[in-house]
Amino acid sequence: MSKINQTEQKINCYSLPIESNWAVEARTNALTWLQTNGLPSKRDEYWKYTNPSCFNSIKEPERNEIDYVGNSIFEKLNRINIVFIDGYFDSSKSDELLFEGIEIETIGEANQKDNHWSADCFGILEKSSQFPVERTLASLNTAFAVQGLAIKITDKIDKPISITYLHTNKTSDALIHHVIKVEKDASVTILESGGVASRSNSLMEVFVGENAEFDHVRIQGRSHEKIAVTHFFADLLKDSSMKSFSLTVNGESTRNEYVIDINGENTKAHIGGAAVGDYSFSQDDTVFVSHNSPNCESRQVFKKVLRNGAKGVFQGKILVKEGAQKTDGYQISQGLLLDDDSNFLAKPELEIYADDVICSHGSTCGEIDNNALFYLTSRGIPVAEAQDMLVLAFLNEAIEEISDENIKEIIGILLKDWMVKRHKS
User: Fold this and answer.
1) pTM for this prediction
2) Alpha carbon distance 398, 378 (integer Å)
């Protein structure tokens, strides 16, 4: 089947919603781009390590597992809780969407309004993300996603906004699109947790204003069979800061795409991720950070622990444009293989057009250090416990990208739980 035919079949599974003129225009532009360029294929350069066919398929996911968790992983935190079930917003399980300094609506409600603030945001970063690499699964999302949130932050928000995804339907297939605008001098933390659906395509567009702060922590579901592609697109203005961390535990195929545009001086952007999986696990982090202004900093820190034939992929690029002097760009990707059957594939890139910068990238892959293991066991620590200690130490650099100590503790508990189950299987 040709790429265009497959794309048309996928498009025929959806219909454009009837909304305000600006929303229809954004969706039509995305649809036109998708029809012109087609869904991704293994022949595309940035898809050669991950097979996109599971995301492109029109067949129902037909998973045998669900990833239902009755309470949020972040339930012990004092937070604003918003719940989606199988990709659909559930008002009965969510907190009231009325908070000082926060405007929250579903995108279904926002896109119906002629003069809504998100008219200047919806689909904008998705559209700009298409260059120089086509991201047509993101176009599919913008064209057809009717579930998601429009969130505007106008103050410093102490409570994190926790988006909890509950997965109950074995054939659920979800499109979710969030638009988040953090205005000048404001700050917020967004938490995401749970498996969205058996197969999901989610997109988050984040606009961070001058001197604003945005923190994002995402814990993706634990089902061995889930299929997920995520898109995180951010636009950062002068003196702003952003941190985003993702933990991926198990899953059949997970692809996380990041496009970060640094558009103001003295801006910081940190992106981190940890992944642990086994057997059919395939996890891909593809990152593009563009330094468009001087005196800015970016960090990319990604760690993956793999066993029993699991595969990890990292594709990361730092682009420093002409005039973006005094750029400090750091990138590290590392794979820890717990057996001989797993593999880690990495493609780090630097593209620099300024002459006064500090940029570095590195990528390593290996097994547990036998000398370190011997040191621990020689002091009476059982082998399994010693291995777990070394795995946690390996992942620690990525986890340190998280600002909140309570969230770090939650991440640590989840990873220890995975390692305990690993010893039993």
Assistant:
1) 0.96
2) 28
